[in-house]
Design goal:
5-stranded parallel β-sheet, 2 domains
Length: 198
């Protein structure tokens, strides 16, 4: 039996990746959301909570991981961040493998992975789709988020592969700087193309 074609969906902060992931899902493609999986595993009674508390005392509570408290302990500390990633990444990889087995009969599956290029995830997918929008659109979207500041935004961008480089390395680019309907039409067209190609 042939396995599904695996699409790696990625894009920098504020580019509309979650919106595009929802469009793929609406059009019948199973989508694995890495961020949502991490939130679940770090939430109330989440399986990663004990390990995170053991490594970073005081970073969890009855509602799971206290993101701000954990952030204080790992922010700007590469060694601490690496320790956290060593707890989180294998668990997410295991969930992704289960997802692939569960949807083994689907022609195409989508892995929604924010840091696909940053963490070398492109090696585990067949095609990369990058979601992109003009820089001014991205900036306006991000700065409209609660608690976001220009400084925080600049720091996040520093940690991410630049949008131009992501676009250059992509197999396909979905533009979200246009109307919702135009973006959705691009998604539909891409699905149709991939179904023919596979």
């Amino acid at each position: 039996m042939t396995r599904p074609l695996i699409i790696g969906l990625t894009g920098s902060i504020g580019m509309g990746k979650s919106t595009v992931a929802e469009m793929f899902e609406r059009h019948g493609l199973p989508v694995f959301d890495a961020d949502a999986e991490v939130r679940r595993m770090q939430g109330p009674e989440g399986e990663l909570v004990p390990a995170i508390e053991a490594e970073f005392p005081g970073s969890t509570g009855p509602d799971g991981v206290k993101r701000e408290a954990l952030g204080v302990q790992v922010f700007g500390d590469p060694a601490a961040l690496a320790q956290l990633e060593a707890i989180v990444h294998p668990a997410v990889a295991a969930r992704r493998a289960e997802f692939l087995i569960e949807h083994g009969g689907a022609p195409i599956v989508v892995f929604d992975i924010p840091l696909l290029f940053e963490k070398g995830g492109q090696a585990q997918v067949d095609k990369v789709v990058v979601v992109s929008a003009p820089a001014k659109v991205q900036r306006a979207r991000v700065l409209a988020r609660p608690g976001m500041t220009p400084e925080k935004f600049a720091h996040i961008l520093e940690l991410q592969v630049p949008d131009a480089e992501k676009r250059a390395r992509a197999d396909f680019v979905i533009d979200t700087g246009v109307s919702h309907a135009e973006t959705e039409a691009m998604v539909q067209q891409l699905i149709a193309q991939l179904l023919i190609e596979r």
